[in-house]
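dumping this here before i forget
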Amino acid sequence: MKRNILIISTICSVLNLMSCDFSTNNDLVAKQSEYVVSEEQAENTQVKETIKKKIFSDFVHEIGPRFNAFKKSDLENARSFSDFIGAAHALRIVSYKSLSVIMLEGEEQTDRVEISNTGDLTTAQIKLLQSANYSANILIKAEYKEKNVETGQVEDSHWTPYLTVVPEKQAAFFNGMEVLKDYLMNSSKETRLHVDSKKLQPAMLFFTVTKSGAIEKANLDRSSGYPIVDEKMIELISKTTGAWEPAENSKGEKVDQELVVSFGLPGC
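structure:
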């Protein structure tokens, strides 16, 4: 009888030990599974964060005329330098050394120049300004002496406004330029996935919105340094054909207008 009791006790002890070992092993497996899941989640988070860093959001900067917009009707009525800088500023000018009207080809100065030594435009300067078509770029360069508003002293100064001739009513994207900017940034994300932002260059994409609302003459003035990105931007802007309200002149007639998308790193 005692022998049987001893055997039963021994069996119970062994079973208890096996039960404890099984429970412990289950706990270890569960903890290891939790660790693996946590590690995978951490890796996925790191990948997502890396992608976010690579696809930087500050990619498209401006969409509009190349330089400061100046309506053609205002250009045709300009008669003095004050028409370009404002009357308040012009009143501080004591005397002029020179006033130049320079036509630009892109950003480069051409030999189409008219110079005077007063603040009033000469007949030749007025004629040159009036010859400018829509989207033409002009530099008005003035050197003069003006009174410092803080010290009252007369000082040498200069002013060089760069202008782009625009229609009275400029071309407009149907849903607004901010929507167009978002479209260009979001639709180019995949292409920009492996772009090194440190190597990206400031780029300028020129395009013309025709009087029918179509997109023509899409071309790059300068590259972003990544041809695949350049090609994608040209493709995307070309796809906006039909989503534009054409520009109009002072008579309400629809006219072509050239616009520029500045993208890549910020630049001139």
